[in-house]
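Researcher: Predict the fold of Nicastrin.
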Amino acid sequence: CTTGKSLVLLCVGCNSVEKKIYVHLNNTVPCVRLLNATHQIGCQSSLSGNVGVLHVLESEENLDWVLKTGPNPPYLVILESPLFTRPIMMKLKNGSSRVAGVAVVAPNANPPKGFSPHTTCPNENTGVYTEEYDPAFAHCNVTMWNPLGNGLSYEEYDFPIFSMKDDNDTQIIRQCYLDHNRAVNGSTPQYPLCAMQLYSHMSAVTDTATCMRRNDINFSISPEMVCDPLGDYNVWASTRPINNTAKGHKMFESVVIAAARLDSRSFFFDIAPGAESGVSGFVTLLAAAQALRNATQEAQPNRTILYTFFQGETFDYIGSSRMVYDMQSNQFAVDLDNVHSVLEIGQVGLRADSKLWLHSDPVSMKNSSVNNEVRKLIVNLQTASRGLNVSVEEPGFSQPLPPSSFQRFLRARPIPGVVIEDHQSAFTNRFYESMYDNAEYLNVSYPTNMTPEEQLEFVTETAKVLIVSLNFLLSRSVLFSLCKVTRMLYGFLVRTNNSWFQQLIPSDLASHLGKLGHTFLKISEPTLLVQYLLANLTGSTPNITQDNCQNQREDEEDKESKHFYYYMWVQGAAPPNSTQREGYCVRSTVRLSKALSPAFDLRDYTSTNFSTWTESRWKSIKGRIFLVASHDLEMLTLGVGVGVLITSLILTYVISSKADMLFSAGREPANATY
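Model: Structure tokens for Nicastrin follow.
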């Protein structure tokens, strides 16, 4: 018992000492390593973490201290967001022998200037516009879609880069720098100096083929994986039930694909609000699906509408390329012969002069039948916009399609289609694929002192903008959907864990809402939410038991419904003056299909046709600051310690060897008697 108490006291003492030495940083988000068929991008630390003396960069001119004149390299550079630019980052990258890492302070408000760490020509090599398809349109020769793109997300860095919120931790770092590290009047800072350590060691190296080969090497019962293919699930639903068990071509079935993308990214791991690049489009499509539910059930249109939400489009069209591949391989509910046309909703939240632009592919329209169908679709959309507070126009000159999922269908065959955007040529989105493409940028804002429930119901200006887009798409007034659009914008951009979303999901997911985060080959939170939202907005609520619902049937004798419908039991709302929720069953045509690049099924890790992106695994992501002594003092301390150790060993040896002489004087003779 005494030994146990001693161990506990010793452990507590160790923790106490650690807390006195280190200040651990909260709310840090790393840049991580990604790999594809040819190379790796992103950031990493050494196995034991990178340590550097803190230096708060005050201006670009101040870089010389870090890269040349500072006497105590390596430095860990603290960057305010205005200095997180390509010129500065490239200088730090090229001087990496004196740079231990970078920490970027994320501002509490968006910067006034645009910032996009993506490339100027997104998905340049995996869309339809190749040298073979039309060399004039290849490589964004006609239109540079993302002119503000600086490509930072696609560089490789030999040091860790973290993002930190501008909060108490950041103030501690700044004060530590001011107290210990800042040079005053040209003087050299004196030890002890404030230092930071960042851990973000990545397991994968070189490229996807290398890391996947290492994954296959099994030397133990539980082999350690080093990377994972980027993947998720697409969400789709049809206005007419389609037999999902029998894959492949459906006789007499003609399908119009209404598509939007679900994903986005930024420089830092899992910070990807995608307000304009993703949310504006898929919220509009969700609202359209809900508005059309009653109309399509009362009178089925000539063609089935297939609502499709693609995942992984940022990384070389993972979701759309997989769906096209499955259609060609008879692994999807319909095939390409069933597809009549495609209508895709892109970025529609930032309309200039109340205009939406209809983009089409000039190459496939050289086919007369494709051209005729596209012209009909454009005329119908322009007719629908009359009398609404929005004008719908074509770009007015020959240019390729903007980056869009539709391009992957065109790679397979000429298909009529239109992509709806809020830009005529280059993106109006100044923060494309960055952490600043958020609620603030889309003007989803609320009066001060509102409760979360009041914010959930508050109609923002952006909701009104998207409703106008919806009216135009449907050729009818759908103001009754304004409430739903308002709630969806709040849920996806402000607070995922809200009372409305809680009603629409199963009870086993409720406690995890807002905490699910990023997943590999599982279902991410946006995918789950869109799945349940689409089911609730387009499905029906049959009066069946929970057991039958969860077993995909109307009753015990039903063997057919599961082929055409998907059943889900959701927790519902609690009645007034009660805490017990009233769950119910939702029957819909909503399904999930895999959004994993075919390259990984084919084990073609150097594919030029499909995405080959993987993400490295890691064990620890953390940061901490502490005071570090001078190198001379550390050497002196080490020398004194070694000297004391050697002296003690010599003394111990001498005393041990002379023990009989030193300790014999007081001994009694062995034969002494009393």
